[in-house]
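Exercise: predict the fold of this chain.
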Amino acid sequence: MHTRSDITKDDTKDETAACEMIITTLSKSVKKNLTPDCAVLFSGGVDSSLITALAARHVPDITLITVGFSGSNDVKWAPDAAQLLGMENNLILKIIDLDDVESTIPRVMEALETADPMAISLGVPLYIASTKAKSRNIDLLLAGQGADELFGGYHRYKEIIKKSTASLHEAIVADVSRLPRRDILRDNTVAEAAGIKLAAPFLDPDVVELALSIPAVLKVREFDGELVGKYILRRAAESVVPAEIAWRDKKAMQYGSGVWAGLGRLARQAGFKKQDKGYIRKYLYSVAKENRIKLYPLQI
């Protein structure tokens, strides 16, 4: 068994050793972040499922929270994933509708001081999940934040690696370096607005150090005839979660929950036309103006 002190650059080039080190290091991070009243922000993807399985080793009855529209990818898949993990009784499935999204937008906008559509579409489901957690006396949510950046999960990484593995590594390092002032700040701000703390086991310094030492060629590579992101993380996850979960391709939270599509419907209901460029952004500006929300920097 490898430990952090055993890690060398040559070790991480070996797929088996890398997998073992990922699980060992991530397991320590998950354990370190557990509290008596915590839950997992659960989508059924490899990131949240891996955190769930590792957390359940110490807290078998840990709560899983999924948010989404009826019929959305996350809502359809999460119960199946929870069942595959043997944790179907732990799942809280919060079905939302347009009214929920519409009433949550101003709260997220006030917290983030922005009308940026991507920030709002990510913030809305997180705020609703955090509110649901708070109502269950949960004070901390474990999230899979950072896994896509560290292990090459974004679709654009598949295009970058076609140039060179060096280009992919550079892109990953740049994205990881931006996390604290962008994604982490955004998500923590939204959760705190709902009275919840977020923990991101993937962003533990030891996990980050290990992930950045793993060659890019092990992060995006061909599997079953197609390029797959997070290859080495999925391979590592196979030892902890069912392969059906480990290798399933999953949409990001704003799409998997159906919230992005919901924002589009709300914008159109408000009279903004889909064919007009930036129609969702224009709708969000109008919400900010109507609710007298100050945006920073000033955007309306």
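Check your answer against the key: The CA atoms of residues 23 and 93 lie 28 Å apart.
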